[in-house]
Amino acid sequence: MIGSAFLVGLCGQGIKVTNDALVQSKIKDEYRGRVFAFYDITVNAGIVTGAIGAALLLPDNGVTSILPITIAVIYLFAALLLMKKSKFSAAATN
């Protein structure tokens, strides 16, 4: 459980750094501060909400198999949804 939490955290921070750079590079100067502030608050609220959810859902000893499997399945469906060919063809035409 600790190993999977470490890897998810590591990957999540890598994604956040990449998204921070994208937000800062793609938003016009006059909106950048407001958009980045909203984005950063949303990400941080998601992290805190996830921690609260884990505290409420996990057993006291922290040993469970259903929650990591459920999260892995959700990640798999999200990856499959994002990898649809139509998503890439729409991005290429813009």
Automatic annotation (TrEMBL):
<dbReference type="InterPro" id="IPR036259">
    <property type="entry name" value="MFS_trans_sf"/>
</dbReference>
<keyword id="KW-0812">Transmembrane</keyword>
<feature type="transmembrane region" description="Helical">
    <location>
        <begin position="36"/>
        <end position="57"/>
    </location>
</feature>
<keyword id="KW-1133">Transmembrane helix</keyword>
<feature type="transmembrane region" description="Helical">
    <location>
        <begin position="63"/>
        <end position="83"/>
    </location>
</feature>
<keyword id="KW-0472">Membrane</keyword>
<protein>
    <submittedName>
        <fullName>Unannotated protein</fullName>
    </submittedName>
</protein>
